[in-house]
Request: fold
Amino acid sequence: MQTIQCSPWSWTGPKQILIKVHACGVCRTDLHILDGELPRPKLPLIPGHEIIGSVAGRGEDASDYEIGQRIGVPWLGYTDGKCRFCRSGRENLCDNAQFTGYTLDGGYAGYAVADERFCFPVPPSYSDAKAAPLMCAGLIGYRSYRLATERPGVERLGIYGFGAAAHILCQVAVYQGKEVYAFTRPGDEEAQQFALRLEATWAGGSDQQPPRALDAVIIFAPVGSLIPAALRATAKGGSIVCGGIHMSDIPSFPYRLLWEERAVRSVANLTRQDGYEFLKIAPRVPVKTEVQTYSLQDANEALSDLRLGKIGGAAVLTMDQ
Reply:
C-alpha cells in the first residue's frame, strides 16, 4: 500500500486518497458558488464536484481502491456519521457535512484529494468525459427522481429545465415506463427537440401547459416562479420536487393550487446509497450522456456557456486536452 505524507498534499485524514483528475463536470452549482449565491464557501477554493480520475496515492488507512483504479468523486465529500440525521439514514442532511468544490477543494485541477468512503467505482462502459455528469447531474437527479416517483400511480413526469440532470433522468424515466413532459426556456426549440430525441412524450416552453395533467414534477431550473406553474400542471395528489441547491424567490400563489394533497419539497445533496443505486441502474438503461468538452484552461468559457444556456447536455473539463 502506498502512503502519501509529503508536501504539497496535506492529508486531513487517514482514509483520504490522492486522485489524478481525468475529467470534471461543470455544474450549475459551480455558478451559484462563484456568484456568491451559496454562502460561506472555502476560500481560496478549487471548484468542481463531478470528478473522474484514477487513484495516485493512499492515506495510511485507505484500502478500498487500488492504485490506478478509476473512481468518481461526487458533491457529498464527508459526513460525521454521528449526528441524528446520519444515525437515521439521512446523511445527506448531516449537521457537519462537507462538500466537494464548495467546502472542500474540487476537481478543476490536475490532482484532487478525497475521502475514499465517499467515492464510487465508475461503470467501465463510460469514458471519463461521459462518466463525469453521472457524479452530480446523475446522482442528485436520481434522488430527485426517486422522491418524485415514490408515491403510487406516478405515470406522467414533468421536468422543468432540460439540461444536464434532466437529459439523464429522462432516459431513466422512459426506461421505467414513465411518460416524460419536458419544459424548456420559452422558444428554445433546440432543447425541445433534444428532449423528444430522448423519447420524451411532449416538449414545450415553461410558459405552456402540458396536454395532460402530470402526476409529478421535477424542477431543475433555479427559477422560483416555476413552482406555481408546475402546480397548475399537476394532478390531484401530485408532487413537485425542486432538485437544485439554489432557487430564486418563490412568488405567492393561491392555496387552491396546492390543495387536493399536492406537495412541494426540496432535495438536499445525496446519500451514498443513492449513488450505489443509480450507478447500478445507469448502465442497464443504458444512460447515454451528451457532453461538450473543454480543456481545463477553458474553464471560464465553459462556465460562461453554461450560464448563457449554450450547453446541450453537460459541459465537462478534460485534463488531457
About this structure: Residues 1-9 have pLDDT under 50 and may be disordered.
